[in-house]
Write a structure and sequence with these properties.
By secondary structure, the chain is mostly beta strands. Helices cover 0% and strands 50% of the residues. The protein contains no helices and 8 strands.
Length: 101
């Protein structure tokens, strides 16, 4: 498996609250390599570090992924793809009206 020396993936993560009052939100983003080329078929894993609940998604043809109904908490996100190394970002807080980048 190849390993990137700089940034394995460009991860754009955003959380948006639903219009109704709720403690859940959405985590979505696009996975791309350092040149900006999207990575379809990459596996994205979102883990609540407080509860250890893990959810997985696979990016579509445009490199896009989405997790619905994400509870408040602190998360780590891992991304891996065929022929690419794995990258993990930890300490992501999901609070009311939070936006991650």
């Amino acid at each position: 498996m190849k390993r990137f020396s700089v940034v394995v993936f460009l991860v754009v993560i955003s959380a948006a609250m639903a219009l109704a009052q709720t403690s859940r939100g959405i985590v979505s983003g696009t996975v791309a390599d350092p040149t900006g080329a999207v990575i379809p078929g990459a596996e994205v894993t979102l883990t609540n570090t407080g509860t250890t609940v893990t959810r997985s998604a696979v990016t579509n043809g445009e490199g896009f992924y989405r997790f619905d109904a994400v509870d408040l908490g602190t998360y780590s996100i891992s991304i891996s793809g065929a022929g690419f190394g794995k990258i993990t970002k930890a300490g992501i807080s999901r609070g009311p009206r939070a936006y991650w980048a």
